[in-house]
């Protein structure tokens, strides 16, 4: 087991070091977003090239591919295995972006960065949930959302401060992510492996010695009705929310400038304010209230606020009143919105042996969807108008709101083991018994 000196990284220090995957991912998206118009001018990029960068980035398909493989590797070789290598690849990607002098360099660096951050995200949400006290799981999982929000806030502030340097300032922002990644990677080498994962692997070995066959995790993910229900909920809230939020993460400064007529500095400052509100509500609402109050209500409140924000932006035009109303509503709602609850529920609703793999699969679908939408969005805005794109965004948000409110699970205050027994039990002779997921696959209604 790798360690830093003679000390291991445990407790909140471990949670924070793992949550930094979200700072790095979101920071990468925002670093690209805040510099998009600068790269466009420097390399003379057309809308197709802009869409391609977005579609293959940490915001979309690059992260999708990374998550698909990262989730599988996390379940097979351990949560700690990912933390040994993923940030080394990430550092290569952001370094390439920082020193890019042509479109191929920029595109290759973007793809490498996207794959690396996608690999780490399922592992981070899984590890945090598995190591968190059951009565404070939302508080610990919320740390990942807090890091996700802090990354963009700091990155946008850096973009404002370094704006006089032009593209050089953007290169410096990517180098700052490289430094953060190295520090995080170093601290993570002292992490203990997830205790739940180790216990589950030991049980698999014991079952194998007794001659018990193990079903394919991927097959079981789709064969069990309880899993299909979880997939419908999680894909429903995370995909449709992210089709709007993901496009915002990459294109909002671009929209502010090209549709609203703001300067690059004004756009970045506005986004920094938005993310500061998200940081605030992540802590005050999700982390402090998510373990004590109705999660269905909190999710619904955030979803409705997000819809209201986009109604204002789409139908009132981009003036300073509508922009500030949008930023206040969306920025506040995002702190306890779909992403925060997705990270929590996705870790609770699947058994240990394919918890990360299930998240990787969902994340793949979501980021693949964002990749397609991100590729189309610049052309839609150029040819049909921003209003048309805004209406589509609102429809996405309404769908995610309905699904989340209707299907929010009752998992609050329970250990992961208790949740797993409840969801993967079977009934014989009128008595509900706890069974393993593999046995459940043989008995549950399929």
Automatic annotation (TrEMBL):
Stretches assigned to the Major facilitator superfamily (MFS) profile domain: 14-412
Membrane spanning stretches: 21-42, 48-69, 81-99, 105-129, 141-162, 168-187, 230-252, 272-290, 297-315, 321-344, 356-376, 388-408
Entry keywords, A to Z: Membrane, Transmembrane, Transmembrane helix, Transport
InterPro entries: MFS_dom, MFS_sugar_transport-like, MFS_trans_sf, Sugar_transporter_CS
Major place of residence: membrane
Keyword Transport: yes
Membrane topology: Multi-pass membrane protein
Compartments reported by the entry: Cell membrane
Pfam families membership: Sugar_tr
This protein's name: MFS transporter
